[in-house]
């Protein structure tokens, strides 16, 4: 199983997913993020999925759960860079991703997070 | 044609990669490729989690009207599905998922056939045609 690296810059944790996600890698990412949020006290998480070719119901559910989880640590998660084809497919699949904040790119996400701190 | 065993999480990733490669060769649009690969990911996970493992056979198909497409057969020897209608209902889940796997996969493809009997395994065949 490959692990997704987490990078802390200032008050924000950056995650850029560059691998073909298997279920275990996403579960691991959730755990690693929870650890990092408690260890660093970061207030924001940005997950860049520009390189992610598909989001199925499992991956979508885990991304939604990461959003809820981060709120328990007083942090906000923003998903950025969703491909148009992925967005169309998610909608048709019936996955609402309710409660997940999104932004077009990392810069916009950072503006939002910095405004919140 | 490719026959991919599904015995672990990285086999699910391998199924997605095979489907993507064949869908690209068949000239499926980017959106249709993404829909098919997503459906394949749901079905491969079902084969692994509910069927206890199995295989995915990915091949190029030709319709009676001469269109090309991608056909995928997922086969397992697992416990089978007792109530097919219920299993295809949005939001119904046998595990702790969202219950969108089968019903969602069906929406993402052009043809969908589910054959299953309790104790006799499950076979799901899907086709996505190029436009």
Describe this protein with a few key phrases.
heterodimer; A: 117 residues; alpha/beta; Transcription Regulator spoIIAA; 4 helices; 5 strands; B: 131 residues; alpha+beta; Heat Shock Protein 90; 37% helix; globular
Task: Provide a compact summary of the structure.
Chain A has 4 helices and 5 strands, in the order E-E-H-E-H-E-H-E-H. Chain A has 117 residues and is an alpha/beta fold.
Radius of gyration of chain B: 14 Å
How many domain regions of chain A?
1
Number of strands of chain B: 5
**What is the averaged pLDDT score of chain B?**
91
Work out the oligomeric state of the chains in this entry: heterodimer
Q: What share of the residues of chain A does DSSP label as strand, in percent?
A: 15-25%
In DSSP terms (H or I, runs of 4 or more residues), the helix count of chain B works out at: 4
Helix-strand topology string of chain B: EHHEEHHEE
The CATH topology annotation of chain B reads as Heat Shock Protein 90
| Name of the CATH homologous superfamily of chain B | Histidine kinase-like ATPase, C-terminal domain
Q: What is the alpha-carbon Rg of chain A in Å? A: 13 Å
Shape of chain B: globular
Please identify, by name, the CATH architecture of chain B.
2-Layer Sandwich
Supply the number of structural domains of chain B.
Answer: 1
Q: Class by helix and strand content of chain B?
A: alpha+beta
Which sheet architecture does the biggest sheet of chain A show? 5 strands, mixed
What percentage of residues of chain B falls in helices of 4 or more residues? Answer: 25-40%
Beta-strand residue percentage of chain B: 25-35%
Tally of strands of chain A? 5
Compressed to H and E, one letter per element, the order of chain A equals EEHEHEHEH
**Major beta sheet of chain B, specifics?**
5 strands, antiparallel
């Amino acid at each position: 199983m490959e692990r997704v690296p987490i990078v802390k810059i200032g008050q924000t944790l950056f995650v850029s997913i560059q691998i073909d996600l298997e279920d275990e890698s996403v579960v691991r990412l959730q755990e690693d993020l929870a650890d990092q949020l408690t260890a660093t006290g970061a207030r924001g998480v940005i997950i860049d999925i520009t390189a992610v070719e598909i989001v199925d119901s499992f991956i979508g559910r885990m991304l939604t759960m990461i959003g809820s989880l981060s709120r328990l640590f007083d942090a906000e998660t923003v998903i950025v860079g969703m491909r148009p084809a992925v967005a169309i497919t998610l909608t048709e699949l019936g996955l609402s991703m309710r409660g997940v904040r999104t932004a077009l790119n990392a810069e916009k996400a950072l503006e939002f997070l910095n405004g919140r701190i | 044609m490719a026959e991919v065993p599904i015995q672990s999480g990285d086999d699910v990733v391998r199924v997605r990669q095979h489907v993507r490669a064949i869908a690209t060769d068949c000239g499926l649009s980017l959106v249709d490729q993404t829909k098919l690969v997503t459906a394949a990911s749901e079905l491969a996970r079902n084969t692994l989690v509910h069927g206890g493992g199995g295989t995915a056979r990915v091949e190029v198909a030709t319709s009676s009207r001469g269109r090309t497409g991608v056909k995928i057969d997922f086969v397992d020897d697992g416990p089978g599905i007792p109530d097919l209608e219920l299993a295809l209902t949005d939001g119904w889940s046998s595990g702790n998922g969202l219950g969108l796997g089968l019903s969602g996969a069906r929406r993402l493809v052009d043809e969908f056939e589910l054959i299953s009997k309790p104790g006799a395994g499950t076979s799901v065949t899907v086709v996505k045609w190029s436009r």
